[in-house]
Specification:
The protein is of the alpha+beta class. Helix content is 16%, strand content 51%. It is built from nine helices and 30 strands. The protein has a 30-stranded mixed β-sheet that branches. A hairpin with a 4-residue loop joins strand 14 and strand 15.
């Protein structure tokens, strides 16, 4: 059989027919430069080379497909026993140029032909259907070599080019039921990034062709680009993969993952048999510094970003329609996560996306010596997303939290905070405006920074008495034992109707607002003196006991401005003096009357 094929069956006699058939079917030019040849030993095979298929007319590059060399050697006799024994599969120098013109025409246009192939008869269909149940007895491959494979995606409309290069893929001795070694080397050039990847592992396919296992799959990836942190990212990972083709499931075990000082392990289970694939992820990570992952912006870039933010004030809502195509559950644990300079530890998160809704059923973390608990829901089924949340902080050291999160040094103490809210729109300019929320807070054993209220009152009192000296300088802070209140959020304004602060010297009550858009403060408070306001080394001064002194807080979160109503202080002091005079007159009258 082999002698007959090689001596009397010359493949090159068919080259003109093949070229004509391709031209008739697609309108493209097929060029076969090298002679088609048989390989005989140790198995029969065909060697092809110098193959080129043109792109449509007036396309550039002119060639859509080029193949330098293709070799397939197959043992002939085992085929009659449903056994496939391949000595070698080799493909070298394949280049595919896929072009999209400005008018939308692509390299694939016309490849299906006008007439197409003749319809398959019912008899043929029936025959094929019956044969589809035939199982493969053996499959043995001596080796697979793919080298210098290049795919170029060229878009003339956007004037961009993406190049993908499979530099090599090798598969060692492969048989059903046995493990085989494989390795690859891949590279890609994108408009703003260079990618490189290499890996190796073992593949196992069972005899029934139903289960595929990839084990000890070790990969190394590198990306370089100006938009990346430090312009380069390197990722190393080792995975194990199991695929059940009959059950349509995949199980991925992430043995190790190392990237940007992040270490992680986990697993992913996928059921792709449903119309919406079901994915379950469990991920355990170490320390994550999100701030370090973000690209650094120069002053010029920051100004450009601000301008871009202003110019996109009328931008459209983010498209969350992908939520409808996902059935995803995620369990995440992390040693620590730093974002916007705010550090949290011991993350535990349960999240799901299903039927267009993202549900954060639970997120807990340690936060500045306290605890964070959060649940939330984001509904992406409509054009304008809606959300709701319930957040609780307990025992948090509030001063470093405010300093790290907002660069505000205003308050210290152990804080507890609870807020429930809802809103619509994820656009920055609408996010604050459309938020509706209610909450309450309590801060224990803390200080209010930027003002020393006892000193401020004492100084005002001394000036009213005619003492214009500056007096002793004291630290600008007011200590308290408790600070409590409730609040509502509406139209980007936080309204606090019942602020109350207590200390051994003072009692402060009042109400006010804080605008979270402009950061403006507007508080009107009443201060009651309950202890001595004397400074260090001063004689005891209890002249203001029982007098209510109005206090205001204006300015912004960053620069609050505290003021005192001296008129009210003066009136209160006059009232106190008048009361003392009345009491003295009363005592004198009683003496005269002998009472």
């Amino acid at each position: 059989m082999t002698v007959y094929l090689t001596m009397f069956f010359d493949l090159n006699n068919f080259k003109p027919q093949i070229v004509d058939a391709v031209k008739k079917q697609t309108g493209r030019d097929l060029l076969i430069k090298d002679d088609l040849s048989w390989s005989i030993f140790p198995s029969i095979g065909i060697k092809l080379g110098g193959i080129s298929l043109s792109n449509p007319e007036n396309f550039s590059p002119a060639s859509m497909l080029d193949v330098k060399e293709a070799v397939a050697n197959v043992a002939l006799m085992p085929l009659f026993s449903q056994q496939i024994e391949v000595d070698l599969l080799k493909l070298d120098g394949l280049t595919l140029n896929i072009v999209t013109q400005k008018d939308g025409k692509t390299s694939f246009d016309g490849l299906s032909g006008e007439g197409g192939s003749e319809p398959v008869s019912d008899k043929a269909t029936s025959t094929n259907s019956g044969n589809s149940q035939v199982s493969l007895q053996t499959l043995n491959i001596g080796g697979v070599e793919l080298t210098n494979t290049n795919i170029n995606l060229i878009d003339m409309a956007t004037d961009t080019k993406q190049a993908f290069s499979l530099k090599s893929f090798t598969l060692g001795q492969f048989s059903l039921g046995q493990s085989a070694d494989f390795a690859y080397e891949f590279a890609a050039t994108l408009p703003d990034m260079q990618l490189a990847s290499s890996g190796q592992g073992k593949v196992h396919v069972d005899q029934a062709l139903k289960n595929i296992t990839i084990s000890d799959f070790t990969m190394s990836h590198n990306a370089q680009g100006d938009s990346l942190p430090k312009k380069s990212i390197t990722v190393g990972m080792t995975t194990q993969l199991q695929m059940a083709l009959d059950a349509q499931t995949m199980k991925l075990q992430l043995t190790t993952l190392s990237a940007m000082d992040i270490e992680a392990t986990g697993k992913v289970d996928i059921n792709y048999g449903n119309s919406v694939p079901k994915i379950a992820m469990i991920l355990d990570v170490g320390d994550i510094d999100v701030d370090a992952l973000l690209p650094q912006e120069s002053a010029t870039e920051e100004s450009v970003t601000e301008d871009a933010t202003e110019s996109t004030s009328t931008s459209s809502e983010p498209d969350l329609s992908a939520f409808k195509t996902v059935d995803l559950t995620v369990k995440l644990s992390a040693k620590s996560i730093k974002v916007s300079n705010m550090l949290t530890q011991n993350w535990q998160m349960d999240m799901a996306i299903k039927n267009g809704i993202l549900t954060l059923s639970s997120l807990t973390a340690d936060l500045y010596e306290g605890k964070l608990a959060l649940s939330a829901k984001l509904d992406g089924r409509k054009a304008v997303p809606t959300y709701q949340f319930d957040k609780t902080l307990t025992g948090v050291n509030i001063r470093p939290l405010l300093t790290d999160a907002a660069e505000v040094d205003l308050l210290s103490g152990k804080a507890s905070f609870q807020v429930k809210g809802s809103g619509s729109s994820l656009l920055p300019e609408k996010l604050k405006k459309n938020l509706d929320a209610v909450g309450e807070f309590e801060v224990a054993d803390g200080s209010l920074y930027g003002v020393n209220i006892p000193q401020m009152i004492r100084s005002a009192q001394q000036k009213l008495k005619g003492d214009l000296s500056s007096g002793a300088k004291e630290e600008l802070k007011t200590d308290f034992t408790s600070l409590t209140g409730s609040f509502t959020v509406k139209d980007a304004v936080v309204t606090n109707p019942d602020l109350a602060m207590a200390s051994p010297l003072l009692r402060i009550k009042g109400e006010g607002t804080a605008n979270i858009a402009s950061e403006a403060l507007d508080y009107n408070l009443t201060t009651s003196v309950v202890g001595s306001l004397s400074g260090q080394g001063d004689a005891t001064d209890e002249s203001l006991k029982g007098i209510d002194v109005p206090l205001t807080i204006k300015g912004t979160f960053q620069e609050p401005k505290f003021g005192i109503d001296t008129k009210a202080l003066l009136e209160g002091q006059f009232k106190d003096e008048a009361d003392k005079a009345k009491e003295k007159l009363k005592e004198g009258l009683f003496k005269k009357l002998g009472i």
